[in-house]
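SAMPLE LOG
Freezer: B-3
Tube label: C17
Construct: single chain, 106 aa
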Amino acid sequence: EDWGDSHARCIAMLISGHGISEHGSRGEPLQDDDFVLLFNSHHEAVPFTLPNGGPDGWDLLLDTALEVVPPEPNDPVPIAPPPWSETAYIVQSRSLVLLSRSRKLG
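STRUCTURE (predicted):
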């Protein structure tokens, strides 16, 4: 019903790494991390309720409202923010946020 709302200024999308239809070289099912994309085109900040991040929470990959880009995983001195374990993330005006949740294979 929100698709027809002409006043909607934000959208969130969960991209599951569990739904990959291809298989690995040994026939094993492939899995990737889960990702959440949060878009806010409104002129005010908007809080988004996040899916459960699991025991390790969500990792911030990108927030276009921040002046600092999160480091690459192989950076010599990682200064990545701690995992986001809150139930909501406030996306600043006219910003995009990308979060990931690792799928650890045991």
